[in-house]
User: Fold these one by one.
Assistant:
Number 1:
Amino acid sequence: MKKILLAGLALAATCVLVSAPAAQANGDRNGRCENGDLCLRYNSNNAGPWMDYWTQDMSHHDDKFFSSYDANGNAVKSNITVGNNAAWAKNHTSPGGYYARICYNSNLGGDCWNLAPGASANLPSWLKNNNASNTWVN
Ligand SMILES: [Ca+2]
Ligand SMILES: [Ca+2]
């Protein structure tokens, strides 16, 4: 399965799903780090505000970290931009799945860093607070 293709299908299906039951297995950028997500956090060592990317994203500069949950359990966004502000990452795909690739520039440009399936780590110093886009690779 190609995750990127699935992402496109998910977008195309969004309108259809509006009236469907809320039996959502996973959500892209829904503030929950679920199976198949790349989760980024504002602070090192799995701390601080977070963001979850299930799809690839060509620019982190138009996204805000989540920082809390409301009374209904929905994640609430902070005012902190994800771009150039991530310090820690976890690849929530299963072992044998896709590597999460995080890049220095938008549109997957510049130097990129790959995080193995199931792995978590502080971003390397050259990428910490310099993240701009992400995708999935074999
Ligand atoms: Ca999610
Ligand atoms: Ca974005």
Number 2:
Amino acid sequence: MQSATYNDAADVTTLEVAVNNAADAGPGQYAFLSFSGIGHPFSISHSDASRGILTFHIKAVGPYTRGIAKLAREGKLTLSLFIGPYGSLTVPLDNCSTIILVAGGIGITPLASILSFLADPSTKRHPLLRRVLLVWTMRGRGLLQVPKLTQQLADAQHQLGAACIQAEVQIFVTGRTKTEGREMTTEAPSALSSCEISGRPDFDSIFAAEKDAAIEKGGKNATLAAYICGPPPMMKASSVAASANNCVIHSEVFGF
Ligand SMILES: Cc1cc2nc3c(=O)[nH]c(=O)nc-3n(C[C@H](O)[C@H](O)[C@H](O)COP(=O)(O)OP(=O)(O)OC[C@H]3O[C@@H](n4cnc5c(N)ncnc54)[C@H](O)[C@@H]3O)c2cc1C
């Protein structure tokens, strides 16, 4: 293992793992990692094929992942097993004119890899792609304090823009704040140059607006795809809105 960093605000451990098959990792894939006992599945957030490094972000939610956090905090985390990568996208990224990524909390991890893949100038071009929207919902701002993650998203947004693909990141912080319901103009504590909004996303309005805009630009041939990962209620609400607005859907469930 290359490095392990525990982030207290997010309760997330960021791992960089050196593997000899990093180049095989595709967008949205995952691997089984074990530090003790049975391996658990974690999405590959980022793949750096040139350095042979895969990045993972692991949220402490139960006994096993809390154990990972404790060892990382103490500088004692050792990876005993890596198996992967596994998984494939049920909706191919090619042939889409608009791609909407919907993440809830730590569900950002597979979507971060999709976003970076789309933005990577060295990967295959996506000739029809005109717009990418990331809607990331979180309870508090903890995840915005994971620099490697926010920097990755900001870099991808910038690279897409440089390739003339409109890229927008919308971050919805759903925990109650004084500014609920209106845009917060104070600087976000992250690398993201995006609009941070307090409150829940209105998926019906978001998907309807994306469909209308895609049809206006691309006519009847506009193709929209949604990639969704997060807690079940958010996945359900966004999937219903996505399918009502002609989106094909790939969803990733973090059930174990
Ligand atoms: C494809 C995929 C990708 C994922 N990517 C990420 C990611 O990027 N980041 C992230 O933070 N999380 C991710 N997850 C979720 C992550 O795998 C779980 O949160 C984690 O394994 C559960 O941690 P825990 O500490 O609760 O585990 P445990 O302490 O092991 O407990 C988890 C629950 O599973 C039960 N359980 C334990 N062992 C088994 C077993 N062998 N079979 C069935 N049930 C068992 C336990 O009783 C408990 O209810 C992903 C999950 C999947 C399926």
